[in-house]
Amino acid sequence: MVDDLLRSEGLPRHILPLSFGPVYYQTGLVLGGQVISLKNDKEQWVVESVDPFGIGSELGIAPGDIPLVIDGLPADQYLSSFKESDWIRVVRQITVVNPNGTILDADSSLTQPASSATIDLIMWLLPCLAFWVVGIYVYLRNPKNEASVLLLACSLVFGLALSSNLASDRLAPLALHITVIASTIGPWLLLHFFLILPEERAWLRHRPHQYLVYVLPALIVIAYPFIGQSNGQPLPDFRTFRLIGYGVGFLGVIGVVVFNLLRAADSRTRHQMVIILLGCMAALLPFLIFSVFPGVQDDGVFLQSNITVAFLSFIPLSLGYAVIARQLMNIDVVVRRGVVYGLITLLMAAVLAGVFALVLSSGVAPGFAQQFILALFLSAIAVLLLGPARSATEALVDKFFYKDRHDYQQIIQSLSASLSATASVEVASSLIIDAPMTAMNLSGACLFVATDETSFVFAAARGIYADRSFELELMDFVKRRTPSTEYPNVVGSKDVAYMIPLTAAGKTVGVLFLSGKASRQEFSNSDHFLIRSLTSVAAVSLRGLLIAERDIFERRKNDQAILIAKQEWESTFDSIPDLICIMDKDHNIIRVNRSMADKTGMLPAEAVGKKCYQIMHDTCVLPGFCPGLGDRNRCGLGDEIVQGDNTYQVNITPIKIGGKSSGRYVHIARDITAVKKAEAEQQRLKEKAELSSRLAAVGEMAAGIAHEINNPLTGVLGFSELLLARSDLAPEVADDLKVIADGSRRVAEIVKRMLTFAHQTKPLKSRVDITELIDNTLELRAYVLKTSGIEVVKKYSENLPWIIVDPGQMQQVILNLIVNAEYAIKHTGNPGKLTITAALEARYLRLIFADSGPGIDNVTITKIFQPFFTTKNPGEGTGLGLALSRSIVEEHGGTLEVASSPRCGAAFTILLPIVQISVSAAENRDSSVNNLEHQSAAVILVIDDEECIRNLAVESLSGEDRHVDTAASAAQALILLSKKDYDIIVMDLRLPGTSGMALYAEIIDRRPEMAGRIVIITGDTLGEDVKMFLETHRLPSLVKPFEPAALATAVAQTLCDVKRRI
């Protein structure tokens, strides 16, 4: 408000009230920038108060004076328009009269400001300047610390405030506001971050609740901008609030000091807190005196000198800093330094006095030039002698007056020399803990060494720590905290006095634990000196040893890794089955792997230096087919070289180092003989698979054709057999019919073999005389055998039993063996012999087919039963005959083997199991077949869509007491079955309309008793549905074409079986 008035009137502001914030008045006059407060007392205006350093105060204006004239007007007239409160006016002149009648006239244009005001301005700016200097000093010592940055920022603001006051008095109130903040929060920051010992700060960092002490001063600082002025209106309670801030700041300092005094673990910290507390009390004493004795106050006004409060905050802080940093209150330190510097002064004075005495003894007064040279000489002597003199003096003083410190220095020097002479961390660890143990007579010492930035390992221990039970406890202390310097009893253990991290180059290389003294004495200043000096030396030496040891370990590790990599490379190089060699551009071998050495029959070392073609191709010149060496990335890409029976794929690759050719090449020869053979075999199998596919297609076509052939062929064969059975035929007709019957049989067998070849079906077994089957097969090849000059010798044992086989399939096996024998003998170019032996061997029938051909070599004999393997020329064989023959024999429960040797022929042996059939049953069946006319009357139904087959069945089965009905379809059959009962039904499975399988189900559903009375005849046994039907119902069946006798036999056997069941 005063500022606004001054600016509105254009008046200079020469001086400000002495305060650390704006001072506001509710009523009064402003004269020359100073306020004269007035009040209306009993209808009379009188002076209430006067600024003590203003113009009015200089002229003697005092409270109680009566104003007479104001700016040339009578006071009553001038003041008549004002109320008693809430007014203020800037004036240029005022005249008053005091109670003594003296008239005083004050004119701002004629009167200069009081000189004491300038001195007061400097006095209140001194705290700002002091805080500014301290902030800069703290920041320079530790620029990375957050508190130092904050202090520097505050100090810069104070500097700006100071500059503003020196440049223009209009900006001075800013400095007043900031000084309030400084006196409130500054002491707290200084005390916490600067005056407290570093080890105490580390301890406080682990107790975050300590920072709660900043809550109250922080609230004051935050609220300060809102106190003192609101929208330009004055607040009269501002001074009270400001005093509260000062009190909080000061009492906060006292509180922190008392807290650390009670909680500090180090005696040094407690001692320093006592000194600070005493200093604060001494500084506060004058303020307390002025407050307690009102008589010394000016007119009862309470002493509110803000500058006193500011100094009360900074005086104990400065005192505490001096005590802590310079140990001014430590008598031992002060006396020792005094003695040292006193002796140095005397020594230097004696030297200088001696020099002056020497100069003056010449009797000639030196001139200016001589004096200047003498001064330079004496300065040089002083500089040169100061360091050595100080060291020598300190050593002498310590030796005679501070023996413990002197002895400790010797221990440190000895330890440093010992650590420098050792290269072992283990030995160094023992030396580090032995030094304090011996010097201070400790109960125990232990050292942990850092393996990395966060991990430590137990290194050495003495005394009570030698018990390894302490190891885990101490390790837990190390993991939980690692302060930056020694901190007494930081772990809160009665067995640990100091836990000292050994720090060098900003990294912790170890942690040293020290117990208390065995004598239970307190640690002295000399002991602290030893501990600090020892930890510094130990940290530096231990760091160097750890770095050296880690370097050695890394080198050994790298050497071991290189050795392992070399061994792995050599093992890999030698284990590769390919033939590998490394050679230069002249084909000189530098190295070969084990495979190449084994291939060449020499040791790897023996191949070195030789030409690659000398050991690989046994030649003295480079073969023309060998790939050349060039500058290409790869040369000889996959070239194939045949050497003997083997084929090699050769690759030659240049070896590049750093992207440039090294003049060396890797020669890799891979044996691809097996791959080539496999490719050839694969190609052969592919061709045979294609052949097999074509044969399968032929087989499918043959199966379709055979089905169509079987039906008419059945009629031709059947009726020719019936005609031959007549006795009234002329011989020439009988011969012709026999030719027709034989031809029909051959056609039937050919069709059957085609079907067997196309699909390996389960055999349709029947009782067979094996010798008759062999003879019939030989008849088929009789002409070829005779024209080829092959003699057939039969060696059949007598009384050979019948066997149960599929006649057609077994004949195919016999025929294949005969044809192979023909081929083998024919290619000898000479007549030969085929010997066929049939003999009984235990429960087996042995058949041997031995030829006089060239025989089979050992390699071929292992493959002859493989599908598609053949020794015949292309187009002469498929390689399926023997494979199919073995499959047929094994399907019958037998075996097919071969025995042979070169030039001794081959012998194929078949073993077939003998199935015993009772003689009575066989005789009964033969009797049933041969005497069918003596059977009881039977009614037979034949169902087939082929008329010739129906007629053949009627002719074959009809008799005196037997009646045969026929049906061409399932519908006709069902009609007949509904009218008549039948003993036997002979039916085809392939019928127009309803199939035979569906008809069978219908018959069994209507006439269940017909089960077991049905005989199946079919020309299609290859269909999956037909095979499944026959296997499921186990019905007797005949495959077309069949002879009349076979049909009669099947019917007779079925009738016999029916009678046995009845």
UniProtKB/TrEMBL annotation:
InterPro entries: CheY-like_superfamily, GAF-like_dom_sf, HATPase_C_sf, HATPase_dom, His_kinase_dom, HisK_dim/P_dom, HisK_dim/P_sf, PAS
EC class: transferase
Domain PAS: 565-617
Keywords: ATP-binding, Coiled coil, Kinase, Membrane, Nucleotide-binding, Phosphoprotein, Transferase, Transmembrane, Transmembrane helix, Two-component regulatory system
Chain ranges of the Histidine kinase domain: 704-916
Catalytic activity, reaction form: ATP + protein L-histidine = ADP + protein N-phospho-L-histidine
EC code: 2.7.13.3
Residues recorded with modification 4-aspartylphosphate: 988
SMART domains found in the cross-reference section: HATPase_c, HisKA, PAS, REC
Transmembrane segments: 121-140, 147-168, 174-197, 209-227, 243-262, 274-293, 305-326, 338-362, 368-386
Molecular function GO labels: ATP binding; phosphorelay sensor kinase activity
UniProt cross-references to Pfam families, sorted A to Z: HATPase_c, HisKA, PAS_9, Response_reg
Domain Response regulatory: 939-1055
Entry coiled-coil feature ranges: 668-695
CDD domains with a match to the protein in the record: HisKA, PAS
PANTHER family in UniProt: PEROXIDE STRESS-ACTIVATED HISTIDINE KINASE MAK3 (PTHR43065:SF10), SENSOR HISTIDINE KINASE (PTHR43065)
Protein name: histidine kinase
Organism: Dehalogenimonas sp. 4OHTPN
Lineage, uppermost ranks: Bacteria, Bacillati, Chloroflexota, Dehalococcoidia, Dehalococcoidales
